[in-house]
Amino acid sequence: MSVTPFVFDPRLDLELKREVEVPPRLVWRAWTEPELLMKWFTPAPWRTTACEIDLKPGGRFRTVMEGPNGERNDSTGCLLAVEHERLLVFTDALGPGYRPAGSGFMTASVTLEATETGTLYTAVACHKDEAAKTQHEEMGFHLGWGTALDQLVAVAKGL
Q1: Taking the chain, what is the end-to-end CA distance rounded to the nearest angstrom?
Q2: Exposed, middle or buried: residue 115 (CB in 10 Å: 0-12, 13-18, 19+)?
Q3: b vs e for 81-101, b when ≥16 Cβ sit within 10 Å of the residue's Cβ?
Q4: 81-130: per-residue pLDDT in tens?
Q5: Other CB atoms within 10 A of residue 4 CB
Q6: pTM score, two decimals?
Q7: With the C-alpha atoms ordered 139, 150, 120, 61, is the resulting torsion angle positive or negative?
Q8: Got the DSSP string for 117-157?
Q9: How far apart are CA 46 and CA 62, in angstroms?
Q10: Member of which family (predicted)?
């Protein structure tokens, strides 16, 4: 069964779409293997110091990010959809097993489509309201997610 990611709403959502020169299977590995994800997930000088991925709908998606001044962000979410080498959807609004968890900030999807030279990579961050979208934009969504994608590509090219 194929899952259709949410419909992009420019009032509420942010998108990063780019063609990268690595095949979907390597992008998928970089996204779904914790030891690989930890190498690229956080734009430097931040680092991802822990990662857990239970790769199934309802499974845990946890990352721990640490900043250069001792900042720490421990985020646990839930995978909502997993289509091998094609789609990953996760949220911080739910915990593992779809259990409600606090006040979620976003639901995100990563879609991979094979192209002649690699992968069309589309990441969408969905927010509950315009204030959350604006907050995410002001936190540097486009630069941060774009830098992380550059780092992902570098990791994937080394596989």
Answers
A1: 29
A2: middle
A3: bbbebbbbbbbbbbbbeeeee
A4: 999 999 999 999 999 999 998 888 999 999 999 999 999 999 999 999 99
A5: 8
A6: 0.93
A7: negative
A8: SSEEEEEEEE-SSHHHHHHHHHTTHHHHHHHHHHHHHHHHH
A9: 16
A10: Belongs to the AHA1 family.
